[in-house]
Amino acid sequence: MNTPPEAGSTAGGAGRARPENRDAFSVPGGKLPLPELAAMKQRGDRIVMVTAYDAPGARFAEDAGIDVVLVGDTAAMVVLGHEGTTVPVTVDEMLFLTRTVARQVRRPIVVGDMPFGSYQVSDEDAVRNAIRFVKEGGADVVKLEGAGPMTPRARRIVEAGIPVMGHVGLTPQSATMLGGFKTQGKTAEAAEKLVADAHALEEAGCMSIVLEAIPAPVAARITRELRIPTIGIGAGPDCDGQVLVYHDLLGLTEGHLPRFVKRYANLSREIRDALEAYAAEVRSGAFPGEEHTYSMSAAELEAFTT
Ligand code: KIV
């Protein structure tokens, strides 16, 4: 698992002040203990999760006091440029991103998202790849999508000593089977199936479950009935925690966004404006100015130019 650096170290950013013992749930100078998530559910303290894929994002999440950082396979779309699908991202690509995030954060729990193809084939394959996420990626927890045949996969990974986060509802890796990126559990029958799936994943040993794009009353019932925390994305306000994709909430994603996204910034506008201003100043000669330029002494300049 991810071994936090010693308290007081400046790992992850030269001289950057780290909040120590931020609250009652943290181990001083270290990782949020996993059982605290269940304790937070009991206390009614909401869990905050966000995705991150690189060192600056991980650092910002840590410094904002985020509890759980998910290195999501949404990386396929928001980082790697695959259009409208998470399917192509590979284990090696996810490990690279997970390692980058894990080496930056101390307190937040790091969840490595197992990509499509890394756990569907067999229990052995699932366990082998989950071990890679922990040993090579530095993840504290792995996440996998779906229930049904994936439930024994989750169980086997847990039996290998690796905490697992489940994910039901809209599971983007199977979007084609689901008929697209659509809300799930909208009929009573489908909703009952989601409830049963969530119970099965809890019984298999999952430490938490993501509920994606399902009606709020269904998420509320699952949250009420499970002992483990639920983390919602498009699942209403009654989940034990919420997760959003970093690029969506910061306004880096352009174009259509799902209804469940709230934008807290418009960074793509700021970045575009900054890059356009830079390009214009280079072309006009306004950049670099005097203050960005190194000089040399008059004597050295004379020696140099004569
Ligand atoms: O990959 C991801 O970012 C996710 C979240 C949307 C929950 O699975």
Features:
single chain, alpha/beta, 12 helices, elongated, disordered N terminus
Q: What is the strand and helix layout of this fold?
A:
Layout: H1 35-43, E1 47-51, H2 55-63, E2 68-71, H3 75-78, H4 91-102, E3 109-113, H5 123-135, E4 141-143, H6 150-159, E5 164-169, H7 175-178, H8 188-203, E6 208-212, H9 216-225, E7 230-233, E8 241-244, H10 246-249, H11 267-284, H12 298-305
Parallel strand pairs: 1-2, 1-8, 2-3, 3-4, 4-5, 5-6, 6-7, 7-8
Helix pairs in contact: 5-6, 8-9
The protein binds 3-methyl-2-oxobutanoic acid.
What does this structure look like?
The protein is α/β, with parallel strands linked by helices and 306 residues long. It has helices spanning 35-43, 55-63, 75-78, 91-102, 123-135, 150-159, 175-178, 188-203, 216-225, 246-249, 267-284, 298-305; strands at residues 47-51, 68-71, 109-113, 141-143, 164-169, 208-212, 230-233, 241-244. Strands 1-2-3-4-5-6-7-8 form an 8-stranded parallel β-barrel, surrounded by 7 helices. α5 crosses α6 and α8 (188-203) packs parallel to α9 (216-225). It is elongated. It starts with 34 loop residues before the first helix and ends with a helix.
- H/E series: HEHEHHEHEHEHHEHEEHHH
Helix content: 25-40%
Low-pLDDT stretches are: 1-22
- Oligomerization status of the protein chains: single chain
Strand order of the largest sheet: 1-2-3-4-5-6-7-8
Strand content: 5-15%
Q: What would you report as the Rg, rounded to the nearest angstrom?
A: 22 Å
SS element count, helices: 12
Compute the number of strand runs: 8
Mean pLDDT across every amino acid position: 92
Specify the biggest β-sheet: 8 strands, parallel, barrel
- The 3D shape can be described as elongated
Distance between the termini: 63 Å
Helix/strand-derived class?
A: alpha/beta
Ligand catalogue? 3-methyl-2-oxobutanoic acid
